[in-house]
């Protein structure tokens, strides 16, 4: 399983990509493999303030329901509306079209405190051993 190098990761299997001062957030391919087919995604409204490491939504899959955790603190500036009609995008393209929200971070340095792709790969390996 490959994990892109241009994103940072949480221990709860979310990813965060910082571009032009905005952080795009989704769940990793490992998370989608563990969840199974995603059938519903509950996301916050634009304008909501999020706190790092606190739940911001829910992903419901055939196997289970799981909370989504904010990788950074800040304001939700965009929500992926396509997921309402096609939640399977999360499985099909977890690091692309299956993104969930975009956050304007209160502190950009929070992104650098997340796991690198190598650290995340080790975490996943440890959880499988």
TrEMBL record:
Protein family (similarity comment): Belongs to the GcvH family.
Pfam families xrefs: GCV_H
Any one GO BP annotation for this protein: glycine decarboxylation via glycine cleavage system
Quaternary context: The glycine cleavage system is composed of four proteins: P, T, L and H.
Modified residues (N6-lipoyllysine): 63
InterPro entries given in the database record: 2-oxoA_DH_lipoyl-BS, Biotin_lipoyl, GCV_H, GCV_H/Fam206, GCV_H_sub, Single_hybrid_motif
Function (record text): The glycine cleavage system catalyzes the degradation of glycine. The H protein shuttles the methylamine group of glycine from the P protein to the T protein.
One GO cellular component term noted in the UniProt record for this chain: glycine cleavage complex
Name recorded for this polypeptide: Glycine cleavage system H protein
Coiled coil start-end: none
Keyword terms: Lipoyl
